Amino acid sequence: MQAKDLKPGMWVEYQQGVAEVVDVDLEHNTAIIENMSDHRRININCGDLAEQPQLHTGCDSYY
Questions:
Q1: Domains assigned to the chain
Q2: Domain of life here (predicted)?
């Protein structure tokens, strides 16, 4: 993904699982995400994130 495609509150998948986007840095194409399993926040390159439209806000499971 690209930083321009992300917004805070959006749910994404990355190598470690499901995360919520906390903040986006358009200049560096990075995002701060919060892992839903341990609530750890990390700064990650947006290219390492995948949008999952099957995830919806408030639920870290597929529907």
A1: 3-48 (2.30.30.140)
A2: Bacteria
